[in-house]
Amino acid sequence: MADDRPAGSDRPVVSRAAVELDQRGFGLRGFCSWHRLGWRSVLLREFTAAPVAIDIDIPAIPDQLVAVVASGRRAIESRRPRGWEAVQFGPRSVSLTAPGRPGRVRWRCLGDSPQRAWHLHLPGALISEAAAHLYGRDLAASDQPDALMVEDEVVEAVVRGVVDAAATGRDDAYAETAGVFLATHLVSRYAGRDVRMPSVGRRRLQPAINYIRDNLHTDLSLTAMAAAANVSKFHFVRVFKDAVGETPVRYLTRQRLLRARRLLADTALPVGEVAKRCGFVSGDRLLAAFTREYGVSPSRFRSARN
């Protein structure tokens, strides 16, 4: 909205509709970058879901919404253009809602803790600008980035970076840069693509994916992972690769290394303890896998972050 732009600026800003969206009936709002930091290039909000929500209508707003789960689990159904879809949101799940897209949702939180998520709003005009830059045209409404749930490490990392920037009081210039990068990524990866959760196979595998993420510190076997999905281990390898794009063992290793990165960056735990918490039998095993994956040792990675 023009009246919210800094004087002399024509850059896109988030809408007041996003700031004023009433969520009191189905959750609690926490941090808000609009009020706390004065950001206008993006809007970052903390959202804690109510334990149960039944047929909540979400009004359309002119911004692109990117939601990343921080903690807790939730079984959610959403009415999409092709009917109702059902997924389980867990930590690091990503959801995309296109500009101008209304919705109806119902959910129940799983476990004893409510689900907490970060909602990052990008100006709809920023999505249009990214499309014009990449494709020379704006996007049709049906082609805008929209998906009930995806796994996207880039989106997760950017949102995590924006959260960290907000915590340290970074200015709107940082937020604008992150927003431009994220808009470009969303358009290049998701625009015009059907990224709904389509296959029964993927939904059937979700318990196994949750089981892997919840037990990275343990000695996970292929048999145990397959049992979580209630399929044979021989069938499990094939359907897992078809649905996820990599083998169960490769997925497990990658998730362990991602956890190791977070622990190395965010804690002072010794490398041996990091290895133990991530399911590696020794610090040497972590060293070998980490160096092979990222081209740098765990100790050098930590030093570079500090």
Structure description:
This protein is an alpha+beta fold. The protein has 2 domains: 2-190, Sandwich (Jelly Rolls), CATH 2.60.120; 200-305, Arc Repressor Mutant, subunit A, CATH 1.10.10. It contains 12 helices and 10 strands. Strands 1-2-9-4-7-10 form a 6-stranded antiparallel sheet. A 4-stranded antiparallel sheet has the order 3-8-5-6, with no helix packed on it. 33% of the residues are buried.
Taken from the alpha-carbon principal axes, the silhouette is: globular
Can you give the mean pLDDT? 86
Instruction: State the major sheet.
Output: 6 strands, antiparallel
SS field, number of helical segments = 12
**Which spans have pLDDT < 50 for at least 5 consecutive residues?**
5-9, 194-200
How much strand?
Answer: 15-25%
Could you provide a short overview of the structure?
The chain is 44% helix and 22% strand. The protein is built from 12 helices and 10 strands. The protein has helices at residues 16-19, 33-36, 124-135, 153-167, 172-190, 200-214, 222-229, 233-244, 248-266, 271-277, 283-294, 298-305; strands at residues 27-32, 43-49, 52-58, 63-71, 73-80, 83-89, 94-97, 103-110, 116-123, 147-150.
List the helices and strands and how they pair.
Blueprint: H1 16-19, E1 27-32, H2 33-36, E2 43-49, E3 52-58, E4 63-71, E5 73-80, E6 83-89, E7 94-97, E8 103-110, E9 116-123, H3 124-135, E10 147-150, H4 153-167, H5 172-190, H6 200-214, H7 222-229, H8 233-244, H9 248-266, H10 271-277, H11 283-294, H12 298-305
Helix pairs in contact: 3-5, 4-5, 6-7, 7-8, 9-11, 9-12, 10-11
